[in-house]
């Protein structure tokens, strides 16, 4: 029997992406198809989504959804089923999915994502002309109210689909005031400690966790970490209370988009057997970033510029990295202060530090294919995808030992080198000294070309494509919706 899943999120590749959430949501349909699970993706009808939707058919009309006229439009994108919530008052705007062109979050995000969640609950529960779904799978706080609507205010014909919430990042919880609660259309009994109430306000992610049959997060280590206040960030109590429903399922990578043998973004394509070709990519990258050529390693960074990613700590250690013989190429988007810091570092070290700000998908591929080592000093990392791309591309990951980074990289310590299984470098804690030591260790490994190639080959052998994790989600759905 084919199981049907409605996967609801605020972003998906190839249409809207600010981070790894989009990669995962975009990959799930393909990951689940071999397991007889049909995933339909549902996202807000941002202009880019409506433009890309092929054969769109209106399947439901809301005269007023959270105060805005709206329609559900079903079609396909890249051959995969996708349903958009077309509500121009809410989603037809310049700027990003969460913030305006100046970078400030939209004031009405609570309304925008409550609307998305209400419509998802209607759709999954058979409240529209579309067939109901076996499972509603909500991603992050933006879809957090969807399971809560199914629990507290189900659509009329509710056959009760199973409810799953995936936490991609505990740092974003969708916290709003208590004053919005009456506008959500939930019954009074939902305002409870095991409902949507959260420290006196309204908590969207909290509501989703409380209303779900299963809670998943994107790596086994992060699943354990979020029981600790430092990582649970206020929700650790909820996680502890529901430990028996919490699962850590590692993200995979989409091998059709991220494969160095076929990647059209790379000047030179290569495999573990033809590693020598990488040098062409490295030279092209040096030219692109205005860097000198020498024998030292080219460190690369591809990231959101935020506190989570430890970029402030990297700034402190840039001078050391350069002084010790490394070079740095950084692609980042986000915090203006951090951006200014890297601009200043590039000015201090012409030819040795190069920076690009903004979002550039093609360049991110070229950096993975040409950099020697990818630096990821994250303070927390639910899964992390860039280290998985780095492993596949022979760009040695140098990572903080946390969350998914801890689960996917094997540190090149003496034991791992002796067993010939090392795939990268790990360090504990994020700050000047741990980073300085990790950079020194990387430089020392890079000075031994034979050893370095072995680490690259080991990393390229790792299979972090979706096969294993697709099966884990399929097993979970089967258990919840037998
Ligand atoms: P997060 O979702 O926390 O940002 P992940 O490592 O899971 O971290 O995913 C980040 C995704 O976004 C990866 O696909 C990465 O290549 C991409 N990315 C991040 N910053 C940029 C950027 N400035 N330009 C292009 N791609 C980026
Ligand atoms: C979040 C996390 C990242 C994870 C991604 C996809 O953005 O920060 O670690 O890989 O979601 O699950």
Task: Report on the architecture of this protein.
This protein is α/β, with parallel strands linked by helices and 482 residues long. The chain has two domains: 3-252 and 466-480, 3-Layer(aba) Sandwich (Rossmann fold), CATH 3.40.50.2000; 272-461, Rossmann fold (3-Layer(aba) Sandwich). The chain has 19 helices and 18 strands. The strands form three sheets. It has a nine-stranded mixed sheet, with helices on both faces. Strands 15-14-13-16-17-18 form a six-stranded parallel sheet, sandwiched between helices. Strands 8-10-9 form a three-stranded antiparallel sheet. Helix 11 links the parallel strand 13 and strand 14. Helix 10 (278-289) packs across helix 13 and helix 11 packs parallel to helix 12. The longest helix is centred in the first third of the chain and has 16 residues, at 109-124. Alpha-D-glucopyranose binds at residues 19-21, 24, 168-169, 218, 251, 381-385, 404.
